[in-house]
Write a structure and sequence with these properties.
Blueprint (H helix, E strand, L loop, with lengths): L11 E6 L5 H5 L6 E5 L5 H5 L5 H4 L3 E4 L10 H18 L6 E5 L1 H15 L3 E3 L7 H4 E3 L5 H20 L3 E13 L2 E6 L16 E8 L2 E5 L9 E2 L7 E2 L4 H7 L8
Parallel strand pairs: 1-7, 1-9, 2-3, 2-4, 4-7
Antiparallel strand pairs: 5-6, 7-8, 9-10, 9-11, 10-12
Length: 258
């Protein structure tokens, strides 16, 4: 096989940024081509955001993936099972969408930790509280290193499933500022122990959304404060106003083709 004969796989995109920088609104410009697993209950933005993509966003298919009102944390299991079902449908050629958007990584991490702590006997349910599981659970003691390790193992297995999907995948994640050796850097946001450094390595594209000169843009090139990556060799500071379909075309992938 020649290098020119290699088929381009649908890109796997880690879309990172602070609140209000357009992550979800941009991902949902995939419209009818995508299904969205909503973990953050953050799609209200897409409902109220008025721009040229408003009608396009109205065509997305949404699968709510919140923690239900039970005394057993089941959100992580439900999300993982949904992705496994999508993988099975893709193999059979019956999955009706060309892209999967997961919003977002921060809540997925919280769900995974709740799952680990509950199944290790670390959380005692509070039956006096009628809200969701996170409010009901009372930690008996602080999590240990092995609990964080179990969380990371669950997440890494989940990311491997995403990587294997033969469709476009967009995983939305929040960022935070971390100081290391007196240098401020932008990293993935999460509660408790930080993510293992190999998480971004599961994605062919690692992009950061931010606002520059009152315009919503995407950073695709690495800088000293943010390790972005683009295997498609995209230019940086791409305006989000292009929409995800056109940005994917810049990656060499046309999602509108049969």
């Amino acid at each position: 096989m020649k290098l020119s004969e290699i088929d381009l796989r649908p890109p796997k995109i880690l879309l990172m940024g602070q609140y209000g920088t357009g992550k979800t609104a941009l991902a949902c410009t995939l419209g009818e081509y995508c299904q969205v697993l909503d973990l953050d209950e953050g799609l209200l933005t897409c409902l109220t955001f008025e721009d040229k993509f408003q009608e396009t966003r109205s065509k997305i298919d949404i699968v709510p993936c919140y923690e239900t009102k039970t005394f057993t944390p089941n959100a992580f299991h439900n999300v993982a099972q949904t992705v496994a079902d999508i993988h099975s449908q893709c193999k059979k050629g019956t999955y009706p969408f060309k892209a999967l958007v997961i919003d977002g990584l921060t809540n997925l991490t919280n769900f995974a930790m709740d799952y680990v702590l509950y199944n290790s006997g670390m959380i005692k349910p509070d039956y006096s509280n009628s809200s969701n599981f996170s409010a009901k659970g009372k930690l008996l003691t602080a999590p240990g290193v092995h609990h964080w390790g179990a969380r990371d193992a669950l997440l890494q297995r989940f990311l491997m499933y995403l990587k294997a999907l033969p469709i476009v995948v967009v995983l939305i994640a929040h960022t935070m500022i971390t100081t290391l050796d007196d240098i401020s850097i932008i990293t993935l946001a999460c509660k408790g122990q930080k993510f293992p450094p190999e998480v971004p390595g599961n994605f062919s594209e690692v992009w950061r959304t931010y606002v520059k000169a009152k315009k919503f843009v995407i950073q695709t090139k690495s800088t000293p404060i943010f390790p972005a990556r683009t295997r498609a060799n995209l230019e940086t500071d791409i305006e989000q106003d292009l929409g995800m379909i056109e940005i994917l075309k810049k990656c060499g992938y046309d999602i509108t083709k049969e």
